[in-house]
Design brief:
two-stranded antiparallel sheet, single chain, alpha+beta, six-stranded mixed beta sheet
């Protein structure tokens, strides 16, 4: 079992929907569409993303000994704002290419090229889809600014945070220590 599988959700085989059987697939271009929703993210253990509504379109160009997959992913994911700690929808739009070759054993040749064993019958794609979405999430997650460049964070929440961070309640035990005079001879 893949280490990112959420064992509880895995029982319903949510991630099995993100597979393409390719044995016997005719040469040429084939199009696939996958709907990605909350159950997709729930099925992945340690996912930073827990909610989202996206569509993943894959154009699979099947050639002898090689396949090229073009992933186009569009939609939104819910993120928690680092500034005001409220949820917001973050737009995702990405285009990625994955080259799949066949060989004696399954291995990853690079980020864009994988080799699958000759005896494999299907492409398991959920981990690539998840990776492509995750790479679109910024390191610093904040509400986007409006058209005038102003923050769209909840102003009441920001005010509460500023108020809490500006109060300086000190411990009286430490105040007593500040009055100690040390001889520096």
């Amino acid at each position: 079992m893949h280490p990112l599988f959420n064992k509880k959700v895995c029982e319903v085989n949510v991630l099995n929907n993100f597979e393409i059987p390719y044995k016997g697939l005719s040469f040429g271009v084939h199009e696939y569409e996958f709907t990605i929703n909350d159950s997709f993210f729930e099925a992945i253990t340690y996912s930073e993303i827990t909610q989202g509504q996206l569509i993943c379109t894959i154009l699979l160009d099947n050639n002898p000994g090689m396949m090229q997959l073009e992933f186009t992913i569009r939609g939104t994911v819910k993120l928690i704002c680092d500034r005001c700690v409220e949820e917001f929808d973050y737009p995702i739009e990405c285009h990625e290419i994955l080259i799949v070759k066949t060989g004696p054993e399954t291995k990853e040749e690079s980020d864009e090229v994988i080799i699958i064993a000759h005896n494999e019958t299907k492409l398991v794609l959920w981990q690539y889809i998840y990776e492509y979405i995750s790479l679109q999430v910024p390191y610093r997650k904040v509400h986007p600014d409006d058209e005038n460049g102003n923050s769209t964070c909840n102003p009441e929440q920001i005010e509460r945070i500023v108020k809490l961070s500006s109060t300086s309640d000190t411990d009286p035990r430490w105040d007593a220590l500040r009055n100690i005079q040390l001889d520096n001879d």
